Amino acid sequence: MKKLLLFSIVTLVGLTFIGRMIYLQVVISEELKLEAENNSVKTVYDYPERGFIYDRNGELMVANQVAYDVMVIPKETGDFDLNKLAGLLKMDESRLEKKLKTARIWSTKQASVIIPQLTQEEYAPLQEQLRKFPGFYIQRRSLRKYQVDHSASVLGYIREVNQGKINEDDYYVQGDLAGKSGIELQYEKELRGEKGYKKYTRDHYGRAIESYKNGSSDLAPIAGTDLTVTLDKELQEYAEKLMINKRGGIVAIEPKTGEILSLITAPNYDPSLLMGRDRSKNINAILRDTVRLPDVNRVLQGQYAPGSPFKVINALIGLQEGVTTPQERFRCNHGYDYGGRKKMACHSHASPLAMSKGIAESCNAYFAQVYRRIIEKGETSSQGMDTWHDHVTSFGLGNYLGYDLPVGQPGRIPDGEYYTSRYKYKWYAPTTISNAIGQGEVAVTPIQLANMTAAIANRGYFYTPHIIKKMNGEPIDNPKYTTKNFTTIDAKHFEPVIEGMNEVYNSGTAKYVKIPEIEICGKTGTVENFAKVNGVRKQQTDHSVFIAFAPKDDPKIAIAVFIENGYWGSRYAAKIASLLIEKHIKGEITRTDLEDYLMSHSLEYEYAKKLGKEPYNINVAVDQGLITDEKERKLHQLVDSLNLKILK
């Protein structure tokens, strides 16, 4: 027994020594070898060229340019003249010291960016001088170069990744760039490509002197995917010009495909402002413009009452539910009386009216009576409202459409439960009568209005709006964007409504913006607008809204235009829509009178009045002593230099 115990102890000790020797000779040796290699070999990432972005006609919108980052590996810096380096980098010494401290906190062994995105001209004088500072080096990368000065909100921009992004995706390291908004964000993985790397042997100063193992360990980068978007570059540029000094949005869709031809949010900015060494300063100025909000995508995020364009939906539901016919006439006594002394006012026009004229003249009384019949057809008001809700949402309203852009709001289409929970007492159709004319509790986004218009143009179906057409020259294969989404309205009911929309241009509220040789169907809208001024809710200048499609019998474009504080539908929105339709179909403009009006009229005064303020010139404001704070003065001057006027 004692012999067995002794043998076991000896065996255990022997195995322990053998295991330790293996660990020291194999594992530790490999670790030491790897550490030695890391110390003698420098790995430099080889960044791929980001994918190009083309418009639907093959016109280049976004390309690339060479940029240079100043990098540092803190562990390799040693002692150096901070003041001399700051002078070389044209940085304040305290700012450089702060950057180095941040780099050490991040990692002493891994590289961090000190100055990103230097141009060729900024990089040239550093090329040789930086070699005198161990641990510092230049990293070449591909940076965006915009071929257009518009479409920032839809193209998006790239920006240095934060720690959250690095933790979320191990592809990124500190200093990497990634899409931050728009197409750049939504298609980041496709556009970015795959990084490669090159290895170099180091000298005793840590400087790269030659390729490691003749490049056998190097990995070539894979270029990003080129994207062809559905946008028409020329139409997009023209639309942004028409929106100068206005706020709102434009969405144009090709009804037969769901492809977005134009997507404009205003005010906007030149996308090149968000590239280069000044990008952080410019981004801060844009984000701090809390009056004009140029960073808000109004066509995807703005939820507005649709106004009179919504009347065509109520007309379609009325026909589908059999509560009216195209021939039935309704009387209008300058409005619609309901609830005793309450009256929904209407402008002067002939009475009584059938459906076509009701749409052409935008008669509130006509649609109030149709809407009331729809709701009252149900056994209860709640049931009638549910039926109405289901019809409306089949047009893509009241829900997120699912388009291939990274932001959006669902809007709001109320149902029976909405009102039952809202009102303590029993409610009836007149309680919700404002829905008849696109006011009340109804809210939509401009892109939903454009999609609704496309569904009408198609006589009852739509394709989900999307903005990517091809990847690396090949058409996208996504059933989501090639599947028809049918409304709950039978195709036969669309013709009388479309006739009414055509009559809007022939004899109705848009007759003065008619385009020669194009049969356009449209609907004007004037949306009541309330805002708080000094804490008091007051009615402000109405919004101008318009929807249209053309040509009538072979639709090539469906469009929605929403202009904040634009007075009435035909004053701004209808003019813009008509010009864009002519531009898209004819390729030229004949209604130069409409163009001249839009180019020469500004709505900045209305936006100032909405806030109870006046427009001002920054220099005059400083001279008059209205702006005395130095930081505020610099901010306003910067914003003015970016063509982002602030109202004070």
Automatic annotation (TrEMBL):
SUPFAM superfamilies: beta-lactamase/transpeptidase-like (SSF56601), Penicillin binding protein dimerisation domain (SSF56519). The keyword Hydrolase applies. The keyword GTP-binding does not apply. One of its GO terms (molecular function) is peptidoglycan L,D-transpeptidase activity. It is a single-pass membrane protein. Keywords: Carboxypeptidase, Cell inner membrane, Cell membrane, Cell shape, Cell wall biogenesis/degradation, Hydrolase, Membrane, Peptidoglycan synthesis, Protease, Transmembrane, Transmembrane helix. Residues 248-579 form the Penicillin-binding protein transpeptidase domain. GO terms for cellular component: plasma membrane. Residues 47-211 form the Penicillin-binding protein dimerisation domain. GO terms for biological process: cell wall organization; peptidoglycan biosynthetic process; proteolysis; regulation of cell shape. It is found in: Cell membrane; Membrane. Pfam families: PBP_dimer, Transpeptidase. NCBIfam families: pbp2_mrdA. This is Penicillin-binding protein 2. It comes from Nonlabens xylanidelens.
